[in-house]
Known about the structure:
Blueprint: E1 2-7, H1 15-26, E2 33-35, H2 49-55, H3 63-75, E3 78-87, E4 90-99, E5 102-108, H4 116-119, E6 129-131, E7 136-139, H5 148-156, E8 161-165, H6 173-184, E9 187-191, E10 196-199, E11 202-205, E12 211-213, E13 219-222, E14 229-234
Parallel strand pairs: 1-2, 2-3, 7-8, 8-9
Antiparallel strand pairs: 1-14, 3-4, 4-5, 6-7, 9-12, 10-11, 12-13
Helix pairs in contact: 1-3, 5-6
Amino acid sequence: MKTGFVQFDPIFGEVDKNIEKAIRLIEPLDADVIVLPEFFNTGYLFTSKQEAEGLAEIIPDGKTTKALCGIARRKNMHLVGGIIEKAGDRLYNAAILVSPQGHLATYRKVHLFNEENLWFTPGDKAFEVYDIGLCKLGIMICFDWIFPESMRALALKGAEVVCHPANLVLPFCQDAMITRCLENRVFAVTSNRTGTEQRGGKHFRYTGRSQITGPAANILYRAGADTEETGVVNIDVSMARNKRLNQFNDLFDDRRVQFYGDLLNEVI
């Protein structure tokens, strides 16, 4: 199957323009799965919860989900992209999965980063895996990467390709994803944004370098740090179904969970 990403610099608050830019970049791509950045339609650097709420959408009835469903149908592909979800009086940092048939799923970010804790409610559902026919697909968002449990949970549930919308400002993730993919023997598509945002006395510079990573700790594609760029790679999904390292070691069968219990207990 062919999987890839879109990397660009969204303009804060310009939802229509950002959707148009994303669609223009997706349109020429020949791929089965494409991943867009976290908050690709709104920008990231909020100054208040009210500001975030003004840019939030109800899923699947909002304009962003409808727009992605439209191009997914036209291009016969699956898309994953990060948006703000409004659900009652709560806001979630969310990623939607859409198919040629429409909206399939919504993932709510479990591990919130920095001031996201002021604006959003942490995700309230477990990591899930979706069988889209060509592969079993998992989703995590940005800062989820730093918790190895995120990708391990997806891998144990059968994920073969992990879609990872991101707005990365720390310099570590792209290299860390090499280890995440190796220790779980999965593919990952990290779609990051580029550019800078300066609002409310705060300044963020995003690291770009969107990346497709393979299960053998191999970088299949890495974008530039500042470029508007798309990348598509043809992957052999069956490689993610083989957890063997050698004749005697299987990454999942060799786990000795009876000795891991203390890791699950809260440290007081």
